[in-house]
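Protocol step 4 of 6: record predicted structures for both targets in the notebook before any analysis. Target 1:
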Amino acid sequence: MSGAYAPLLMLFGLSVVNAIGMMVASHVLNPRRPTPEKEMPYESGMTPIGDTRVRFSVKFYMVAISFIVFDLETIYLVPWAVEMRRLGWGPFLAMVLFVAVLAVGLWYEWKKGGLEWD
């Protein structure tokens, strides 16, 4: 039984050694030389104005989370759509339920004003 896990343990050990080696190599080969220009926050070539820790509206985060949710929906829908005819009615009804739950969530967010950028 333990012989079956030996390649997995070797891969894990090699990954850990590789990660540590890369971190050590980056510190040895590229020493830090701070300058005022390097320490300044990057603002697309413009001089930064004000504090960099600006509060964002909750609506910004709602739209961002919605974007992620609907990207994940696409990740599930595309492979299912490719094999839809071969899979049959069970997975079709499961996907209808999945899309319906997401549609109800989108409707709720729309009614609560989460998509408005006032």
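Target 2:
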Amino acid sequence: MANQPLRELVQEAVDLIRQQKYDQAIDAARNAIDEDPRDAAAYSALGIALASAGRLEEAVEPLQRAIQQAPYHPEHYYNLAVNQVKLGRNNEAIAMCQEAIRCDGKFKQAAVLLKELEKVTHTEAAPYLASIGDQKGSAYHYKQEKPQAPYDPLAEQGDENAPPPPPPPTNNQ
């Protein structure tokens, strides 16, 4: 398998982070990036290792690169949000939490962090309750199985006298 050495390097970096051997984790993550400069997991591991080593400002760039390489993976946005909180950049962290939720409406860690940031900043952030993905909340596995009814603003107001929405169009050709 061609990616086996890469996967092993990323896993080694993650294991070293868990063992709090941050300098070794940084080296392993950089080796993984050298193996494949497009691997989001390697950039994420590098960013987390740098942040864990106290090099928060240096961690921003690899965490952003992880997002660039895999923009539909909420964990990368969440990792950057956590780093932004540590840097005292709460507004940026709120935006990253919102993006994580937008990618996956069921990503609990981002929702919890967003609530905490709302308390700290005394603001109410729009949590993107609806994800950009399918009804299961995943943008990465987007599917449109059936046509949606057109938007009916009266239905939201609870107007009992409002006419029912028209039936969805059919594709009988």
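Step 5 preliminary note on target 2. The helical segments are 4-18, 22-35, 40-52, 56-69, 74-86, 90-103, 108-121, 153-157. Residues 71-132 form a domain with the Serine Threonine Protein Phosphatase 5, Tetratricopeptide repeat fold (CATH 1.25.40).
Proceed to step 6 after PI sign-off.
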